[in-house]
């Protein structure tokens, strides 16, 4: 082994240009990547302006009445979206009511209690729920979930709580209840995955401190781990809400598509996304089309606001990570 | 043992059992759905299902060959458009994304990730379908690509960031320019991860229906021309599931099984790629 002849290996003069990164290739590379990256903000701007532009005739014509009134009469050219806004919010909140305990349970079990060998497979299976296409959920809902609800869920519900206004009317199948249950199943993987990452980000010292003070394992989870990750967990729930608000196909197939505001969960309802899916290709007049664009714009603005809120809350706990964008 | 202590132990036991049961319920939901798909769809998977086109409503027989080919073309087109933009954006975020623009792009990607797909559908309708005057598979691909880009960008960024800094420093110290370091050292090291992100994104959009309703539209005939309306499995399932015929319902279950199989294969492939390269990553 002879030592390297240093005189020959060393460059005759330092390449300052390279060291400063002022290489032509570098500039081209950076420029190209920046251009690609800029496409996303531009896309967002294009999306918003296109929606707003197309919705403008309806906005000018109906103003705020669009949001408050419930007459949706394409023939007369009168449009009020209150029933679908109500249905969207009602179905999403009912879904959260079912999905939040379920997904928090999954997340807590997987991070705190499950045996090590079980964690990976179970979290994979739960996250696989996110891989099922919406339209397949809809198909399953029509032919499995609705018959199940009709036989096993609605009669006992009626027997115990039938006197409340929430369970009045005949259950035909397609209903707010069916739509909400399917939504709940669909958002569980999102909430569970993000909650799990949030709980994993809680320092072990939190648990150790609680256990060291004599807390049971559940008390450690409930008094030390969960409060520590509270902002992130709320973010996870809000993220699930965002998913539920914009979900289209499964809800369209199950919620019954009726322009009416009713308190009963057994009655059909409508959502904004479902209205667009059902009526967009039938919109014969410009005003009708414009009204549907306004529905789309409202839906978009709501989901963007909800998602932005969720991101900010999750980032507070797990800074800058892509948590939840990859629930699979 | 005091009552109080007993109560605490009981609560501990009950809650431990409860979260276990809840996890079981979530897994059960998945198994039920997959089980029903197989039970109701598998018997219809025969030769004619894969090779024939739909027959007129009400008559029996026929298949969904047009939809299978259509899904392949529309999703393939979306991947061609979406992958380069998504990976490029992800590399930007990982390499140069520490400034204000990086923050904006990252935030926009996360916001777009949660955008309802139906909104993307009507956006592409105004952008491509209305000016062109007709529905087309190409418009469908663009709509799906828009859904893919933010997903891929964020996973690419995350996985490129995992590459150890020492690798980059070693390359730069040898006089490699930054762009070659980025492409030949950093991106190549993260290749398995990037590929995984792409597979996951493709799996996600393969089952999308809402963005295709007003772009690819659907087509009862066999069509491979991307300038024309095209059928997709997801569109076919929607039409058949909500239709009145038993024959349609049968085909809907079979199509759903095929679609689900495709998505599962992609998802499992993604896991496998990541695991075989990165060891037991995640």
Characterise the protein shown here.
- The complex is a heterodimer of chains A (328) and B (282).
- Chain A is mainly α and 328 residues long.
- Helices cover 71% and strands 1% of the residues of chain A.
- Chain A has one domain: MetI-like fold (Orthogonal Bundle).
- A two-stranded antiparallel sheet of chain A has the order 1-2.
- In chain A, helix 5 runs parallel beside helix 8, helix 7 crosses helix 8 and helix 13 packs antiparallel against helix 14.
- Chain A is globular and about 70 Å long.
- Chain A starts with 5 loop residues before the first helix and ends in an 11-residue tail after the last helix.
- Helices cover 75% and strands 0% of the residues of chain B.
- Chain B is globular, with a radius of gyration of 23 Å.
- Chain B starts with a helix and ends with a helix.
- The chains are: A mainly alpha (328), B mainly alpha (282).
- Chains A and B meet through helix 3, helix 5, helix 6, helix 7 and helix 8 of A and helix 1, helix 3, helix 4, helix 5 and helix 6 of B.
Topology:
The complex is a heterodimer of chains A (328) and B (282).
Chain A: H1 6-9, H2 16-19, H3 24-62, H4 65-68, E1 72-73, E2 78-79, H5 82-113, H6 116-128, H7 134-161, H8 176-200, H9 204-212, H10 217-228, H11 230-246, H12 249-254, H13 272-279, H14 286-317
Antiparallel strand pairs in A: 1-2
Chain B: H1 3-41, H2 47-51, H3 65-96, H4 100-113, H5 117-132, H6 137-161, H7 165-173, H8 178-189, H9 191-206, H10 233-242, H11 246-278
Helix pairs in contact in B: 1-11, 3-4, 3-6, 3-9, 3-10, 4-6, 5-6, 6-9, 7-8, 9-11, 10-11
């Amino acid at each position: 082994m002879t030592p390297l002849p240093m005189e020959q290996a060393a460059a005759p003069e330092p390449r300052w240009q390279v060291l400063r990164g002022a290489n032509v290739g570098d500039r081209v590379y950076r420029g190209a990547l920046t251009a690609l990256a800029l496409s996303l903000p531009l896309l967002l701007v294009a999306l918003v302006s296109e929606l707003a532009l197309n919705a403008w005739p309806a906005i000018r014509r109906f103003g705020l009445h669009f949001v408050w009134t419930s007459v949706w009469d394409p023939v007369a050219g009168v449009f009020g979206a209150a029933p679908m806004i109500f249905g969207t919010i009602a179905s999403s909140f009912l879904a959260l009511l079912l999905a939040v305990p379920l997904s928090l349970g999954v997340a807590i079990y997987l991070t705190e209690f499950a045996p090590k060998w079980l964690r990976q497979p179970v979290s994979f299976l739960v996250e696989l729920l996110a891989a099922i296409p919406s339209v397949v959920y809809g198909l399953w809902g029509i032919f499995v979930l609705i018959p199940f609800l009709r036989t096993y869920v609605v009669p006992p519900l009626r027997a115990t709580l039938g006197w409340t206004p929430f369970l009045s009317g005949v259950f035909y199948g397609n209903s707010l209840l069916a739509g909400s249950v399917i939504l709940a199943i669909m958002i569980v993987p999102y909430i569970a995955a993000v909650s799990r990452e949030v709980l994993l980000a809680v320092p072990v010292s939190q648990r150790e401190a609680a256990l060291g003070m004599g807390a049971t394992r559940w008390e450690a989870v409930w008094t030390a781990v969960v409060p520590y990750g509270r902002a992130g967990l709320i973010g996870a729930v809000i993220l699930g809400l965002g998913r539920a608000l914009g979900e289209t196909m499964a809800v369209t197939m199950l919620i019954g598509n009726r322009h009416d505001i009713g308190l009963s969960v057994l009655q059909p309802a409508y959502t904004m996304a479902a209205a667009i899916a059902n009526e967009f290709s039938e919109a014969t007049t410009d005003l009708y089309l414009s009204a549907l664009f306004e529905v789309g714009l409202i839906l978009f603005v709501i989901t963007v606001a909800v998602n932005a809120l969720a991101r900010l809350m999750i980032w507070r706990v797990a800074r800058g990570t892509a948590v939840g964008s990859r629930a699979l | 043992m005091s009552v109080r202590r007993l109560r605490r132990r009981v609560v501990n036991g009950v809650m431990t059992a409860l979260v276990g049961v809840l996890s079981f319920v979530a897994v059960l939901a998945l198994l039920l759905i997959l089980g029903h798909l197989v039970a109701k769809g598998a018997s219809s998977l025969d030769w004619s299902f894969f090779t024939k086109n739909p027959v007129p409503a009400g008559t029996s027989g026929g298949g969904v060959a047009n939809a299978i080919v259509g899904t392949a073309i529309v999703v393939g087109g979306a991947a061609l458009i979406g992958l380069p933009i998504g990976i490029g954006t992800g590399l930007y975020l990982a390499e140069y994304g520490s400034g204000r623009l990086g923050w904006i792009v990252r935030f926009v990607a996360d916001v777009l990730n949660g955008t309802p797909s139906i909104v993307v559908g009507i956006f592409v309708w105004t952008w491509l379908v209305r000016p062109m005057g007709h529905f087309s598979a190409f418009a469908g691909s663009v709509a799906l690509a828009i859904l893919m880009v933010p997903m891929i960008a964020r996973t690419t960024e995350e996985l490129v960031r995992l590459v150890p800094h020492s690798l980059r420093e070693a390359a730069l110290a040898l006089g490699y320019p930054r762009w070659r370091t980025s492409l030949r050292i950093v991106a190549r090291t993260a290749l398995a991860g990037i590929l995984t992100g792409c597979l996951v994104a493709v799996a996600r959009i393969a089952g999308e229906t809402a963005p295709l309703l007003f772009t690819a539209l659907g087509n009862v005939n066999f069509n491979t021309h991307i300038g024309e309306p095209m059928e997709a499995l997801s569109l076919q399932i929607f039409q058949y599931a909500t239709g009145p015929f038993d024959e349609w319902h049968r085909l809907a279950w079979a199509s759903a099984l095929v679609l689900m199989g495709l998505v599962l294969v992609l998802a499992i492939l993604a896991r496998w790629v990541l695991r075989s390269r990165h060891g037991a990553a995640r």
